[in-house]
Amino acid sequence: MNPDILTLGPIWYVCFIFALTCHEAAHALVAKLGGDPTAYEGGQVSLNPIPHIRRAPFGTVVVPIVMLFISGWMLGWANAPYDPAWQRRYPKRAAVMALAGPLANFSLVIITIIIMRVGLASGAFVQPDYFQFTEIVQGASAGGSSTFAIFLSITFSLNLLLGVFNLIPVPPLDGSTVIGLFLPEHLAVKFADLCNNQAFALLGIVAAWRLIEIIFAPVFLSVSALIFR
After folding, report:
1. Buried b (16+ CB within 10 A) or exposed e, 197-207
2. H, E, C per residue of 151-217
3. What is the CA radius of gyration of the chain?
4. Cα distance between residue 30 and residue 101, in whole Å
5. I need a labelling partner for 173 at 20 to 30 A (CA). Which of 78, 125, 135, 215 fits?
6. Is 83 left (phi over 0), alpha (psi -120 to 50) or beta?
7. Where are the alpha helices (DSSP H) in the chain?
8. Shortest CA distance to 78 belongs to which of 56, 105, 48, 45?
């Protein structure tokens, strides 16, 4: 067992739950603003992770921990409920609701970039000789500064991955619903019906995993260039 996993596991989980909670809360809030109170009534317009964990305990607890030990990464899922009839009546609003989740993740990426840039400029952080997805910056000193740097680096990487992955336009990912923004309403409804077919969900996930292996590395390196010279 890799001792780093035991040491960093709690930080990974805090970053993961925070990213997932912001993602789902953004979905729920935009759906409520768009006229669908389903997730709001379930308590998911909240940065409290408990309602999200209760709705998907397997995807928010079991799978992330298993994935961390297997792959060194912590991934999983949650979901904000919505009314399918509302989506059919307002496909454009549903598309904005779907877009809100990845945008929440990208907002966290921007915030971490700003903090890391300030930390590097002030000397609180130092640029490593090389970096991996889970180690973007190193603390300039041991203790709290180092732990905070690790938290920031994982938050940066994880939210970038979640945002990019969820925008892949295949069901059941958010990107398949976001496509409705660019279609006439009657076509958006038909496309949503097609994407809601559960028969396509597994195929979509497999395709998304193959695509993310290709597209994430160049995206990661490009966005990392906003932090380092």
Report:
1. eeebbeebbee
2. HHHHHHHHHHHHHHHHCCCCCCCHHHHHHHHHCCHHHHHHHHHHHCCHHHHHHHHHHHHHHHHHHHH
3. 18
4. 9
5. 135
6. beta
7. 3-33, 38-41, 49-55, 57, 63-71, 84-89, 91-122, 144-166, 174-178, 185-195, 201-224
8. 56
CA 229 to CA 225: how far, in whole Å? Answer: 6
pTM (two decimals): 0.89
How far the first Cα of the chain sits from its last, in Å, is: 35
Measure the CA angle with vertex 76, ends 221 and 101; round to 5°: 70
Q: What is the spatial distance between Cα 108 and Cα 227, in angstroms, rounded to a whole number?
A: 14
pLDDT digits (tens, 9 = 90+) for 107-161: 999 999 999 999 888 888 877 665 554 444 444 333 445 788 889 989 999 999 9
Contact 150, 132 (CB under 8 A): no
Going by C-beta distance under 8 Å and a sequence separation of 6 or more, which residues neighbour residue 145? Answer: 124, 125, 139
Q: Residue 172, preceding bond cis, omega within 30 degrees?
A: yes
User: Is the separation of the CB atoms in 152 and 141 below 8 Å?
Assistant: no
For the four alpha carbons of 24, 81, 182 and 176, in that order, the dihedral sign comes to positive
Which amino acid, one-letter code, is at 53?
A: I
Q: What's the gap between Cα 19 and its chain centre?
A: 6
Q: What is the DSSP letter of 76?
A: -
